[in-house]
Structure formats: structure tokens, C-alpha cells
Amino acid sequence: MLTGCLLIAAGCNHDEKKVAEQPVASVVKKPALTGPFRFHKLVEVSPGEDYDILSWGRGSKTVGSFMILHSDSSGKKYTTTTGDLDGTIIDVYNSDMDLDGNPELLIRAKATDTANYATIYAFEFNGSKANKLDFPKLTKSQRKGYNGNDNFYIKEGKFMREFPIYDGDGKDAKPTGAKRQLEYGLRSNDFTVKQLSKDSTDKSSDKQVAKESVKSQEPDKKKTSSKKSKKQPSEKKSKKKKKKHRNSNDN
């Protein structure tokens, strides 16, 4: 019995050693960016053609530069595109809006002011050549009720933008519940803009049209007064004729 107990104890110790010897699964962490770099995203347009987008700069978190590293491993060509950056990069979008086979990269940055305004840096790449595109600013009607908080995404090859509409300005602005949606395309290296949504701006114009239609249904006071003025001279003439007739009888 003593021998059996010793054998069981030895077996338990052997199992404990096996459990302790099992390797612990290591968690693979994404390598953190070290200064002066702040942002990095890899965009793979096609096999062997990659774009690394980075932002960098020391001494400031909101002002710096961005660079686009284009790697054409099949053609063994490597180019760099740089530019000044105002704000922090939020995301990068890839599309071919004009369907010419040349990719477009749109870098979205958050502006340095207190509101969440968006800035877009756009480029079209043709081989090793980078063509800078001027992203259009919001027009006066598009800016009505705008207070930032944009949402950008790619849909059916188009660059989409939507944002909530606010009533008021600054910190006192309150969301109305409506949204404005814009669709951006590209034609001859120029952006096209199309508003897809009907928002508060359209409603205000509809109210104006309704007011004008109500006014058109009201009776025209000027016309009625003009008719009365036309009747007055005829009444005077009739009175004069009556007076002349009386005078002839008296004679």
C-alpha cells in the first residue's frame, strides 16, 4: 500500500510538471508608432502596388506633415509624396471616381479649431506621378446649419459625405435631426458635387413657395380700387346731363 501511494504521488507531480511546462500563448500586438510618426495606414490598390500614408512632426500634436510612400514592387519603383498637414489624420479612403484606372487617395484630417470640421487632402496617382486635387469647399447653402461632425465613406465608387444640420451657431447650436448628404465625383481632375438629401434648407424654400401661392389667391385690392375709380367719372357725366335737361325745360 505504501508503494502504491508513492507511485500515485509521483504521477501527480509528473502531471503538474507537464501543466507547468505548457507554453503560454503570446498576444501579438500591433507595433506602436514611435516619434516623430503619429499615424500610419497601408492601402493596397492591387497586388504589388501599395501606399503607406503617414503623418509626422515633433513638438506639436496638430501641426506637421504627411507623406505617401508608393511602392510598386513589380516595377521596382518607389516614390514619395509629401505635404503640410493642419490637424490630425482621421482616416484615408481609396477610390477611382472617374474610372480611368488611376487610384485616388483622400486623406481626412480633423481641423485644429474647437469644432469637428473636416479637411480633405486628395491626390490622384498615375504611375509614379501624383496629381494634387482641390477638394471643393462647402457653398453658402451647403454650409447653412453646418457644425462639423462629418461622416465620410465610399459608396459605389463615389466619395460620400453626410453631416447633421444644426440650428444656431457655436456652442449654442442644437441638432435639428436632419442630415445633409453630398456625393462627390471626379471629371477631368475636377470634383463634381451633388446634394442627395432634402433638408431644412429645402423646407424653408417650400414654405416661401407656399406663402407666394397664398398671396396669389388673395383678391387684388389695387384692381378693385381701379374699377371704382373708372365708375366715378361716368356718374359725374350723368349728373351733368340731367342738369342740362332741367335748364332747357325752364326756358
Please sum up the structure shown.
The chain is α+β, with helices and mostly antiparallel strands and 251 residues long.
User: CATH homologous superfamily of the domain at 37-204?
Assistant: Periplasmic lysozyme inhibitor of I-type lysozyme
- Please state the structural category: alpha+beta
**Which residues form runs of ≥5 with pLDDT under 50?**
200-217, 220-231, 234-251
What is the spatial order of strands in the main beta sheet?
Answer: 1-2-3-4
End-to-end distance, in Å? 170 Å
Q: Overall pLDDT, averaged?
A: 78
Radius of gyration over all CA atoms, rounded: 38 Å
Biggest sheet layout: 4 strands, antiparallel
Taken in chain order, the helices and strands follow as: HEEEEEEEEHEEEEHH
What share of residues is helical? Answer: 25-40%
- Please give the CATH architecture of the domain at 37-204: Beta Barrel
CATH topology of the domain at 37-204: Lipocalin
What's the number of extended β-strand segments? 12
Strand percent estimate: 35-45%
Structure, explained:
The longest helix is centred in the last third of the chain and has 30 residues, at 221-250. The protein has 251 residues and is an alpha+beta fold. It has a domain at 37-204: Beta Barrel (Lipocalin). The strands form 3 sheets. The protein has a 4-stranded antiparallel β-sheet, with no helix packed on it. It has a 4-stranded antiparallel β-sheet with strand order 5-6-7-8, with no helix packed on it. It has a 4-stranded antiparallel β-sheet with strand order 9-10-11-12, with no helix packed on it. The chain is globular and about 55 Å long. The chain has helices spanning 2-21, 140-143, 200-217, 221-250, and strands at 37-46, 49-56, 63-72, 77-86, 88-95, 104-110, 118-126, 129-133, 151-155, 158-167, 174-187, 190-195. Helix content is 29%, strand content 41%. Residues 200-217, 220-231 and 234-251 have low confidence and may be disordered.
